Amino acid sequence: MKFNDLVSKIKKLKKDRGAIILAHNYQLPEVQEIADFLGDSLELSRIASHTDAKVIIFCGVHFMAETASILCPNKKVILPDIDAGCPMADMITAEDVKRLRDKYPEAVFVGYVNTSAEVKAELDFCCTSTNAVELVKNIKSKREIVFIPDKYLADYVSQKTGKKIISWHGFCPTHIKILKEDIIREKKLHPQAKVIAHPECIREVIGLADEVISTSKMVKFCSQTDAKEIIVATEVGIIYRLKKENPFKTFYPASERAICPNMKRITQEKILFALEDLKPEVYVADRIRKKAKKAIEAMFKIL
Ligand code: CIZ
Ligand code: SF4
User: Fold this and answer.
1) Does residue 69 fall inside a structural domain?
2) Which atom from ligand 1 is nearest to the alpha carbon of 213?
3) 171-214 per-position pLDDT tens digit
4) What is the 3-class SS of 174-209, one letter each residue?
């Protein structure tokens, strides 16, 4: 199929189906190009819940489509490749959280959005990389805080809030590929550049960054900063969006190794198939959905 045939077929079918296409900031350029909206997982889930569209083609990974389904149960949420998962989210199960609850019965449980719906159902608060620090700061109780599953994000939150945090041993296999030496090399090559890093990065990388921010904050920062050159320490897919929105600035990936294979599974072909078949659907059953939604709403309430 010729590129334009594919794009026009997707556009026509999208209209016929009353669908919108949402794409995460890490998606392939060919997916970003045909998306109605780009964003981080929470921005996209919020768009999903506010739109009139009845069908959401969610181009991201499984937990993100689940989050959209939790927030809008009356819509059909389709993940064009059902095998697009998140290894970090798979590093903890609901059973693990229950065991932690037994071990720390008095603790407040905070979980990163990168978790399954079953795990979210066991939490007091859900958070994202945009609001993790603010959320933990705002927990006024003196109880211990358990933060799962990302040990690096937990470490960063503890450092920024000065609160002691009990963490889990999860991590993002993509972000840990960015090394301290990558930042040192890129800074030498581009001495004027600012360094922005995702809080899923290892501590040594975070220590060298000018800004430690989520992808949605990276998008904002890059459009507002006076810096003309920016070294980007996160999954490389975001560079396409950053370049497109800031044609007069130069972006350098901190490491070309930082590629999330799961984020690259979705293609235009798979989006077309998803629109044709209206599957694979991601649906969170009511029993889990109601509990998981509470943790997400608790986040909205406190911030
Ligand atoms: O919440 C998201 O979308 C994730 C996982 C990362 C980010 O910073 O956007
Ligand atoms: Fe999961 Fe890391 Fe991929 Fe994000 S970049 S989806 S945290 S594996």
Assistant:
1) yes
2) 8
3) 999 999 999 999 999 999 999 999 999 999 999 999 999 999 99
4) CHHHCCHHHHHHHHHHCCCCEEEECCCCCHHHHCCC
Tell me: do 100 and 165 sit in the same domain: yes
pLDDT exceeds 70 at position 76: yes
CA of 43 to the centre of ligand 1 (A): 9
In angstroms, what is the span from residue 219 Cα to ligand 2's centroid? 18
Please tell me the total count of domains within the chain. Answer: 3
Its domain, for residue 250, covers 175-259
What CATH code is carried by the domain that includes residue 11? 3.40.50.10800
pLDDT at 3 over 70: no
pTM above 0.90, yes or no: yes
What residue's CA is closest to ligand 2, atom 2?
172
When the pLDDT of each residue in the chain is averaged and rounded to a whole number, the result is 97
pLDDT band at residue 1 using 50, 70 and 90 as cut-offs: low
271 with 234, same domain: the answer is no
Same domain, 153 and 183: no
Same domain, residue pair 151 and 200: no
The reply to whether 271 falls in a domain is: yes
Q: Whose CA is nearest to atom 6 of ligand 2?
A: 86
pLDDT classification of 10: cutoffs 50, 70, 90: very high
Q: Are residues 103 and 93 in the same domain?
A: yes
